[in-house]
Amino acid sequence: MKLLVGLGNPGPSYLLNRHNVGFIVLDMICHDYSLPPFKAKGKSMVTEGVIEGVKCFLLKPMNFMNNSGPAVSQLAHFYKIPLEDIIVFHDELDLPFTKVRTKVGGGAGGHNGLRSLDSHLGKDYHRVRIGIDHPGHKDRVTSHVLGNFSKKEMEDLPYVLGPLSDELPVLLQDKPDAFQNHVARHIQESFKPSPSLP
Question: Is pTM beyond 0.85 here?
Fold first, then answer.
């Protein structure tokens, strides 16, 4: 059994924020693998199903980013899902847009959602870090992460996030390095930037 967590903020005003890319990935996985629609369960939106033979819960905390930990901890403890079977999808300032990396544990790096998870779960869960670029100066970080993806980024986003969903079964088989490599190759092969405007 795996618990897939997408980090984001609830409400329509945050829907297309860079900070909400974890929610976007989970919605894509739900669609691609024909899982039931998300339903409210406590302070979360949850769905479940079997993906390539693996029982999965998908969870989007609805407590806002900086208080994501309690909702994830509650479900993980109820179903006795250990840290090694929890996979968290989140935005990563320190990676360029189009780059995806996996890791286990580590620091929160200023990410309030990860900080909340760390304090309620511990640190040794799997992380899928989805690059959103750094705005270049710390004073612009908040407006960047809470800003919407640009028009061009929205056009390109399927080429970045699609491989995460396509290659998910590899990750569910506890092969994070292979997953990362496959995703990188697919992004490189299928990523088609929009032509520059004159």
Answer: yes
